[in-house]
Amino acid sequence: MNQVFRIAATGLSMNYMPEYVAQEQGFFAEQRLIVESYVPSPWTQCLTDVDKQDADVVVGGIWLPLIYMDRIANYYSFAKIASRCPLVIVSRQKIAEPLNWRAMEHKRVLVSGGDGASHYLSVAGCAKEGGAEIQKIRFIHDFSTSMIIDMFLGGFGDFIVLQPDMANKFIADGRAYLYCDLSRHGGIIPWSVYYGTEALFNHPDNLAGRFYQALQKATTWLLENGGKGCKSIIERNWPHVKLADGIATIDRFCQIGMWTPSIEITEQELTRWQGFLVEGDILDKPLDYRKVVKKVI
């Protein structure tokens, strides 16, 4: 018998493509799952829904289960869908190559605070790894994405962190220059994962395990077929994006490792990401890998 599996998504994103492929190619159906996905507003409604079991899982940043653990609610992660931060940093003035993270020191860097903590944490963590003194970077991360865009266009700020489509528009319009594509230069982290409550992992029919197997099959298929295999998904979900540009984005993500061959959340990448959270002072110390990640197959 087919069973409904509901995903409360924190957004609709091209780096979630393996999930959309699993739906399109019938891999969920092979596991006897009827997968339904929706994006509530505000995104924090995802947590309410999974707590009430109106949703089975949340797809979003693993930073939230980490900082909520043993404080607010315990959520456990079991599969990743994005292994790199997709954000792009653009600058008001052209910065000479090669990438020099210290160029942001003593400058205002606008980062959205409306989508959670991960945008700021990833930029700050990568900058520190790259040799910058974080305390010298003037991060502005108290405003929504739309507000920081208006502020930057109005002349405020030296750098701004954006989603790839918006960053490309800024560059094409001559309003900014490419400084750093984090999907290329940000390294491997468990950027987006699926997580749920203990109830999911106690389900007698192993819904999480069946979902995992379908998602793994979709990831393998995506890495083999690339953007051309996603034409209908791109056209349906991103009608404002030129099809050729959408295909190119998926191909680039495949090439740079946005999706790794395995969807398993590894201890190494989680340790690195937790280091960013500790540095950002939203986590006291790294949590034990086995406390955070559930094995479902």
TrEMBL record:
Assigned protein family: Belongs to the NMT1/THI5 family.
InterPro entries xrefs: NMT1/THI5 (IPR027939), SsuA/THI5 (IPR015168)
Any one Gene Ontology BP term: thiamine biosynthetic process
Substrates-to-products reaction catalysed: N(6)-(pyridoxal phosphate)-L-lysyl-[4-amino-5-hydroxymethyl-2-methylpyrimidine phosphate synthase] + L-histidyl-[4-amino-5-hydroxymethyl-2-methylpyrimidine phosphate synthase] + 2 Fe(3+) + 4 H2O = L-lysyl-[4-amino-5-hydroxymethyl-2-methylpyrimidine phosphate synthase] + (2S)-2-amino-5-hydroxy-4-oxopentanoyl-[4-amino-5-hydroxymethyl-2-methylpyrimidine phosphate synthase] + 4-amino-2-methyl-5-(phosphooxymethyl)pyrimidine + 3-oxopropanoate + 2 Fe(2+) + 2 H(+)
The protein's name: Thiamine pyrimidine synthase
All residue ranges annotated as the SsuA/THI5-like domain in the record: 15-225
Keywords carried by this UniProt record: Iron, Metal-binding, Pyridoxal phosphate, Thiamine biosynthesis, Transferase
